[in-house]
Structure formats: C-alpha cells, structure tokens
Design brief:
Layout (H helix, E strand, L loop, with lengths): L5 E2 L2 E6 L4 E13 L2 E12 L12 H4 L5 E2 L2 H28 L14
Parallel strand pairs: 4-5
Antiparallel strand pairs: 1-3, 2-3, 3-4
Length: about 110
C-alpha cells in the first residue's frame, strides 16, 4: 500500500498517548488524471507511529475541485500502468545514483540514517 491516503468523514482517537486512529466509513480513492474511483474500506485502524500528517478536508472546497467520479473499473488499469512505469523509473534512477553518483544501494550497507 505504497503512499496510501485513506480518508473518512468521521473518526476518533483510540489512545491519546499513542495517537492511534480509528477511521469510520473510510474510502480509498484511486486517481488517474482528473478521474477517480472509490473503494469502500469501512473501519480503518492506523497505529499512531505510522501517522505522518493528519488534516481535515473542507467539504465545501472539495466540491470545487475539477475531478470526475468514474466507475472503479475505468481507473484501476491505467493507475496500475502508472505504478508499473513509476517502478521502472525508480529502478533506473537507483541504478544511475549507484553507478554514476556514488550513492549506496537502497537497503544496502551505508543506507542507514
């Protein structure tokens, strides 16, 4: 679930110490160009240590965004194709960084912080 951004219109904090989240009526939105399709996910539990950013969507402004809802079947194939192309670009980029720029291989020796 690379770069997954679930969203919901209601949610609550499970534990204020760990800031775990429980999202209700969660939707996973798949984008391609100016079109999107939604996958209903229901309840989504996110461990607080995995939360980088939490924000609120202004539902009034969301209506003004020029996106077109389409059936999910129309969005998934081009979205997967985009993901496959991105993986290929990332492999090429990592190879150039390793061979020409002296960076370490991802996950290899010297890749720790």
């Amino acid at each position: 679930m690379d770069s997954l951004i679930p969203f919901t219109t209601s949610g609550s904090l499970v534990d204020s110490v760990d800031t775990n989240l429980v999202l209700e009526d969660t939707v996973e939105r798949i984008y391609h160009g100016s079109a999107y399709g939604d996958i209903q996910r229901g309840i989504f539990i996110i461990r607080g240590e995995n939360v980088v950013l939490l924000g609120e969507v202004d539902l009034d402004k969301e209506d003004n965004v020029p996106l077109t809802p389409v059936p999910l079947e129309h969005v998934i194939p081009p979205h997967r194709q985009d993901q496959d192309q991105k993986k290929i670009r990332d492999i090429i980029k990592a190879k150039v960084l390793l061979e020409q720029k002296g960076f370490s291989k991802e996950g290899g020796e010297g890749d720790g912080y």
